[in-house]
Amino acid sequence: AQTDAIAVADEPARTTDGTHIVVAANLSSVADAVTARQVGADAAGLIRTEFLFLGRMEPPTVDEQEAAYRSIAETFQGRRITFRTLDIGADKPLSYVATAAEANPFLGLRGIRLALARPKLLHDQLDAIARVASDHPVDLMFPMVSTVDELTTALAAVTRAQGLRVGVMVEVPSAALNARALAPHVDFFSIGTNDLTQYTLAAERGNAAVAGLADPYDPAVLRLIDCVTRAAGDRIDVAVCGELAADELAVPLLVGLGVRELSVAAAAIPLVKQAVRRVDMAAATALAQRALQQSSARAVRGLCGRL
Ligand code: PEP
Ligand code: MG
């Protein structure tokens, strides 16, 4: 019975005109992979590998990482899985990585910045991922990239196993604005709307006092997403893996902006697939164009609610 339930949940999500939108899962543990498959995840669009590194006294070994990554790959049975390299620092410090105190941790040594400053951590992780990529379809992406130089430095450390695709998260406004310059180096973009919103509106995520400002429906955020899909053209796949992708109302808007993969928490997968099946591409494209012309998040939400 469970196999039947998975078979139904596994039906691909297509818009009314037949465009396939990949509905993928965000994972923060090996156990999450099992749950995600049970609800029909087409892929794993964001594996937050920090789970292996946090709450311990020393970094996981390459073998330990390989075992965890392999277990996720096996659960996904040949479906694409996307490892994000370590995204720590700032609010997620590691006891075994000494860093100076920072006045503005979200603007400090985090994500790819920390990984490049501590190459052994990054290289071990890339080794473990490469081992799994030798016999599973694996995507790799880097978090918090703000310049082309950071991306090319990180890419220089990657062993290009066959079938390994590389991508970059777009979650800093400079990365969205420079998407055309990043594009030649990658196979895909994955937009992290949580951080992208925080940095675009200069409103700290999770800070209740500015929660009203940190709205991913803000036209400024949408214009940055539009920059990315335009720069991607037909060659590069664009995913959204921030919370916005799990919002039913945002699904037509994101698809209309050219996004072709939505990566969300497992619990949201069935609803997001249903929302995709209701999307009429012509209406979604028109909605996105109108949304880009609005002057407030409230106005954009109004448009989305009416569709
Ligand atoms: C994001 O910033 O949107 C994202 C998906 O990454 P995280 O939430 O892990 O920072
Ligand atoms: Mg992020």
Automatic annotation (TrEMBL):
This is Phosphoenolpyruvate--protein phosphotransferase. It comes from the Bacteria. Homodimer. The dihydroxyacetone kinase complex is composed of a homodimer of DhaM, a homodimer of DhaK and the subunit DhaL. Belongs to the PEP-utilizing enzyme family. The gene is ptsP. It comes from Fodinicola feengrottensis. Signal peptide: none annotated. It is found in: Cytoplasm. Component of the dihydroxyacetone kinase complex, which is responsible for the phosphoenolpyruvate (PEP)-dependent phosphorylation of dihydroxyacetone. DhaM serves as the phosphoryl donor. Is phosphorylated by phosphoenolpyruvate in an EI- and HPr-dependent reaction, and a phosphorelay system on histidine residues finally leads to phosphoryl transfer to DhaL and dihydroxyacetone.
